[in-house]
Amino acid sequence: MQKTTERKLSLTPALIALILILVIFGAFYLKRLKKEGNDLEQKLEQANKEKQNETLQIPLISAEDTSKAIRNEKFQLIDIREHDEFVLKHIEASINIPLSHLEEKMHILSKSKTIILIDRQDTSKGRILTQHLTEEGLDVNYLEGGILNYSNSDYDLVTIGNPLIQSDLLKVTSFTAKELIDQVMNGSRLKFVDTRPAVDYALDHLEGSINIPLEKIERKKEKLPIRTFAVFDKDPIRSFQASVRLYDMNIIGVYNCKETFQDIKNTINNLGKEEEGEEVKQEEEAKTNETK
């Protein structure tokens, strides 16, 4: 009897181990089945969305035709992505009205132009919105494939301009305030574009400079000088960003002042002093030579 009891006791650890193995295996198997079920659900949901998109008949416009519509008075480009995403990269002259704010900004949508609706990519929400606006009586085309397809088709986008990114640095030709003023003094017909806010320009500005605030530089492209010009601001990062955006807009002959508006003013104010100092120096040298 004692031997039988000992045998049962010795089998107990093995039995417990077997049960644990079965439990762990069962849990793993159930988790795998659940994951496969979720994957299947996602695939079915995606297939359903694609089917809905196919059956939803809306006017589409290609990336090529969208690029031709830029600054065409017959079109209005509306980007419905969130503002943070829009600022990083967008199609030139497009207007940002995030989908989340569209209802309160419906008055911005033109009733006399063809609206091109720009999304990040082709989505069911974007297509449904296009259909809804069309039913409201607006002439709306949906950018096929969204801005990702537009970019992948090698059409230019206007970027924010980051001085820490090498590709943006290569877009900009920068000079100090003194180097720019020296060019003017040596006969260059260089123009100056002040990208500070209008209120700052009104308080003080360089004579002959043009004020086009950074935030409006795309909309006021036609007011830019025809020949070579320099961009400056109270903040050198802003002037750098303006220079990058102008490059992205295919504007050539742009110099960036890597110093501030105040630095330019100080450089101009010091010109007379430098000339006086040079004259005094020459007089002193002449007197020294006469003495010898």
Description:
With 292 residues, this protein is α/β, with parallel strands linked by helices. The protein has two domains: 60-159, Oxidized Rhodanese, domain 1; 166-272, Oxidized Rhodanese, domain 1 (3-Layer(aba) Sandwich), CATH 3.40.250. It has ten helices and twelve strands. The protein has helices at 2-55, 63-69, 83-88, 124-135, 146-152, 166-169, 177-185, 198-203, 236-248, 261-291; strands spanning 60-61, 75-79, 89-90, 95-96, 114-118, 140-143, 158-159, 173-175, 191-194, 210-211, 229-233, 254-260. The strands form three sheets. A five-stranded parallel sheet has the order 1-6-5-2-4. Strand 5, helix 4 (124-135) and strand 6 (140-143) form a beta-alpha-beta unit.
Work out the helicity level: 40-55%
Q: Structural class of the secondary elements? A: alpha/beta
Spatial strand sequence of the major β-sheet: 1-6-5-2-4
> What is the level 1 CATH name of the largest domain?
Alpha Beta
User: What share of residues are in beta strands?
Assistant: 5-15%
In CATH, the architecture of the largest domain is: 3-Layer(aba) Sandwich
Number of strands: 12
Q: What's the story with the biggest beta sheet?
A: 5 strands, parallel
Question: Poorly predicted ranges (pLDDT <50, ≥5 residues)?
Answer: 1-9
- Name the helix and strand elements from N-terminus to C-terminus, one letter apiece: HEHEHEEEHEHEHEHEHEEHEH
Q: Give the termini distance in whole angstroms.
A: 133 Å
User: What is the gyration radius calculated from CA atoms?
Assistant: 33 Å
Give a short overview.
The chain is of the alpha/beta class and 292 residues long.
